[in-house]
Specification:
There is one protein chain. The protein contains 16 helices and 16 strands. 49% of the residues are buried.
Length: 515
């Protein structure tokens, strides 16, 4: 009798701790109300920081402003200010979204957090290409989330006057700080949605993948995630005053020289004048000065390649890769289809140009075809990702999984930049081939498995085994055709030539030449 009463009391106690997942959740700042939809509870437009407007423009994200009552969280917030339809974008943009399949709040489900791309100048969670719902439904045991962050000059503008009001005496990188603030919010709140803060995996593509790379290197992000997936990302090139794809980073001084020139052109000499300008005043600089993360010594402490060599990074399992024809999506004489391809290569690569033109040759008729475009692919993405894999495999303790996405469409020679996103998010349609449908399903499984197990390989899975990358046997998973397969790293001989260029760039001679 006594034993029965004790067990009954224990059951009541456990029941109280195991609350049912509802559409209303109390979070930092107040209570939000989402909606239930066929096995998912969805919340859109949850504020994770104060609006970065007025005096908060170009400041680190500040604590969310509390609200009374229940705040509706059923539609996407506006995205960060950028060129485009003004109904979609605003400086008031620091909101996130959650798709949870949890039935109870104590389920401790793994979490995948999406960081969108767009060259750090565009993008927002409300873009249909960034919708996480189909992926959240695929296994039904992983929570999906997505975070807005500031882009362009609103997200990365740097100026000595901003340094002076900052206790770290740096400026810029506000967009990366937004991502960190969103991840901090998730650490504090995701358990209320049935999630496990100890099993958070970040993933992103292009600028989102580069962001993932930077978060893996930033000491400010330590402990905020346990795994990372980077699609066409990586930021391992050295800083350069004149930037190119793959050499995008500037030092604080370089960036501030550019941003001060912008301020002069806009007739602003004080912070008050700069903050009084409408964000549209910066639109003509959207893809230029002040619109990219920088090596500020704080958020991004230094050259990421050198940081990894020294073991100064957040050592978590990573799944990283790139697409077979990234170069088809870019132009400018650095591997794209331009008549001055060789001249562009010589301008960028100096003494290494001839060796690279031999490693990445043009077509017999002089056209910059696929092999020449591959130089752009590898400089911007292939070498960055391969270097990440090599460095972490050599220095880190966590696992590395490398991939190469190659699923050409309608006669194309390879997969362009961004094509992989729809495959991961299960955004296939009636026009998709059976091969595409099979590959998309496999990729979704691999990504979700990685969030659950720290490896794309699940117990009992029928998927081809994805080998762990090692420097002794550098294998990549080729995400191609209906059935992925493991194989050698593509264009390895050419990558080694490109590696020689990047090594030279870090010598005194290479640094002097780049100036």
């Amino acid at each position: 009798m006594k034993k029965g009463l004790i067990l009954a009391a224990l059951a009541v106690s456990l029941s109280a701790c195991s609350a049912e997942m509802t559409t209303q959740v109390k979070v930092t700042g107040g209570t939000v109300e989402g909606y239930a939809d066929n096995g998912l509870t969805i919340f859109k437009g949850i504020p994770f920081a104060a609006p970065p407007t007025g005096e908060l423009r170009w400041k680190a994200p500040q604590p969310v402003i509390p609200w009374d009552g229940v705040r509706e969280a059923k539609t996407y917030s506006k995205g960060p200010y950028q060129s485009g339809n003004p109904e979609n974008f605003s400086e008031d943009c620091l909101y996130l979204n959650i798709w949870t399949p949890a039935v109870r709040t104590d389920e401790k489900l793994p979490v995948l957090v999406w960081i969108y791309g767009g060259g750090f100048a565009m993008g927002w969670t409300g873009d249909p290409s960034n919708d996480c719902e189909a992926l959240a439904r695929k296994h039904g045991d992983v929570i999906l989330a997505s975070i807005n962050y500031r882009v362009g000059q609103m997200g990365f503008f740097s100026h000595p006057l901003l340094d002076a009001e900052n206790e770290q005496h740096v400026s810029g990188n506000y967009g990366i700080l937004d991502q960190i603030a969103g991840l901090e919010w998730i650490q504090e709140n995701i358990s209320r949605f049935g999630g496990d803060p100890d099993r958070v995996t970040i993933f992103g593509e292009s600028a989102g993948g580069i962001s993932v790379s930077m978060l893996c290197a930033s000491p400010l992000a330590k402990g905020l995630f346990s795994g990372a997936i980077s699609q066409s990302g990586g930021s391992f090139g050295p800083a350069r005053a004149t930037t190119y794809p793959g050499e995008n980073m500037k030092t604080l001084k370089m960036a501030q020289d550019d941003c001060m020139a912008v301020a002069r052109e806009l007739g602003a000499t004080t912070l008050e004048q700069l903050r009084a300008l409408p964000p549209s005043a910066f639109s003509r600089y959207q893809m230029g000065a002040g619109g990219w993360p920088i090596v500020d010594g704080y958020v991004i402490p230094g050259d990421q390649f050198e940081m990894y060599e020294q073991g100064r990074f957040n050592d978590v399992n990573v799944l990283i890769g790139y697409n077979s024809d990234e170069g088809a999506s870019f132009s400018g004489g650095f591997g794209g289809q331009t008549p001055n391809h060789a001249d562009g290569v010589r301008t960028r690569y100096g003494k290494y140009a001839d060796a690279l033109l031999e490693a990445y040759p043009v077509e017999p008729d002089g056209r910059a075809g696929k092999t020449a475009r591959d130089l752009m692919r590898d400089a911007a993405f292939g070498w960055q990702t391969w270097s990440w894999a090599r460095l972490q495999a050599a220095v880190g303790k966590s696992k590395v999984f490398l991939y190469y996405f190659d699923q050409p469409q309608r006669g194309a020679e390879g997969s362009p930049h961004g094509q992989d996103v729809g495959f991961v998010f299960q955004h296939m349609n009636q026009r998709s081939s059976q091969s595409d449908l099979a590959l998309s399903s496999a990729m979704g499984d691999y990504w979700l498995n990685f969030a659950k197990y720290g490896t794309p390989n699940a117990p009992g899975s029928d998927l081809p085994v994805w080998p762990e990358f090692s420097n002794d046997d550098p294998q990549a998973m080729h995400l191609s055709g209906p059935t992925p397969f493991a194989g050698p790293v593509p264009s390895l001989d050419a990558l080694n030539v490109l590696d020689g260029y990047f090594k030279w760039r870090r010598t005194d001679e290479g640094k002097a030449w780049a100036k």
